[in-house]
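Team,

Forwarding the record for the chain on the shared tracking sheet. I've put the sequence and predicted structure together so nobody has to dig through attachments.
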Amino acid sequence: MRVLETVGFVALLLVLILVAFFARRRLIARNGGTIDLSVRLHTFVDGRGWAIGRGRFVGDELRWYRMFSLSWKPGRVLSRRDLAIALRRVPDERERMVLPANWTILRCANRKGTVEIAMALSTMAGFLSWVEASPGTVPDVR
């Protein structure tokens, strides 16, 4: 009987975690202004380090939430006041295995350093317009 109780408890716990994932995603996207967005978390190995998630526009910030996380805090926050696009490129052969087709990679620079983000071509036009509409100054990315 103990085994059945343990299995039932584990199954209930898994269902609750799944419900929490979907509730979190729904609450993040609730007010609109979200896009599918991948962020490169590390560059230790070429073509690796990408994490999928959702980007949410809130005022002058793009807040990135990791897809498979229960954290309510964004994993990255990009402020358009000091954001510049340093490089635009297509995914290389290894990156094409982890990124969806027709996605483009943008290397963005700000006062804190650089970050690579990937998004669909259809999304990129809106993102670039959002960046260009910034009222702030743009850092020198040379």
